[in-house]
Amino acid sequence: MPLTVAAFYQFVALPDVRGLRPPLQTFCAARGIKGSILLAEEGINGTVAGSAEAIAALVDELCQGTLFAGRLDHLELKYSRAASMPFQRLKVRLKREIVTLGDPAADPTRQVGTYVSPADWNALIAAPGMVVLDTRNAFEVAMGTFEGAVDPGLHSFGQFKDFVAGSLDPARHRRVAMFCTGGIRCEKASALLLARGFSEVYHLKGGILKYLEEVPEAESRWRGGCFVFDERVALGHGLRELGHAAPDTPGGRVP
């Protein structure tokens, strides 16, 4: 039977984060779950795989169990499948940030951009004057991206703030739409842009993965494959495993 892969995150205050790691590690290990879960005082971020029953038990514990005591009530959650275990081991780690940007002004618990559903994304990015940003790293963009999206040329997400400072101007670039794999990087990226004076900031809810899951391939503006950080390498429309993706995806520049 194929395995279930769950990708999830939520920005939420977890001041007791150090005490959460051991029981969460034990819970996952006891059910044969593998993958990576990051914990920080700002929230949780993970991608894990296991049997359907094991993943269902983990999601139930995260959302309704005693460990997080109801704090993960807005968990962003996406499922996909894997023919074989895509992770070699289980890692539950404590971090300073669940996605590293290194700018305290980017606080998704205070403000984020406007969420756009996959069904509305095509119309948004085709709107006049819209700057469409791919907030992922350059090697991810090379595998696939949306038509005309700007590649900031990042080696790591922490460089995004420097790209914004050097290439974007809130007076000129009044409308910005951004996307990433599952949505978490856009939470911080949109918070950063709002903190720096950009007025209209949008981001794809659920990220590329939700778009590929919900938007029919015949209507899609996505080209190539979506890189994922496991042994499946890349996913395509319908979240099918590709294993690789075409590198010649069309991109754009900041106007």
Automatic annotation (TrEMBL):
<dbReference type="InterPro" id="IPR036873">
    <property type="entry name" value="Rhodanese-like_dom_sf"/>
</dbReference>
<dbReference type="InterPro" id="IPR040503">
    <property type="entry name" value="TRHO_N"/>
</dbReference>
<keyword id="KW-0560">Oxidoreductase</keyword>
<comment type="similarity">
    <text>Belongs to the TrhO family.</text>
</comment>
<keyword id="KW-0819">tRNA processing</keyword>
<protein>
    <recommendedName>
        <fullName>tRNA uridine(34) hydroxylase</fullName>
        <ecNumber>1.14.-.-</ecNumber>
    </recommendedName>
</protein>
<dbReference type="InterPro" id="IPR020936">
    <property type="entry name" value="TrhO"/>
</dbReference>
<dbReference type="Pfam" id="PF00581">
    <property type="entry name" value="Rhodanese"/>
</dbReference>
<dbReference type="InterPro" id="IPR001763">
    <property type="entry name" value="Rhodanese-like_dom"/>
</dbReference>
<dbReference type="Pfam" id="PF17773">
    <property type="entry name" value="UPF0176_N"/>
</dbReference>
<comment type="function">
    <text>Catalyzes oxygen-dependent 5-hydroxyuridine (ho5U) modification at position 34 in tRNAs.</text>
</comment>
<feature type="domain" description="Rhodanese">
    <location>
        <begin position="126"/>
        <end position="220"/>
    </location>
</feature>
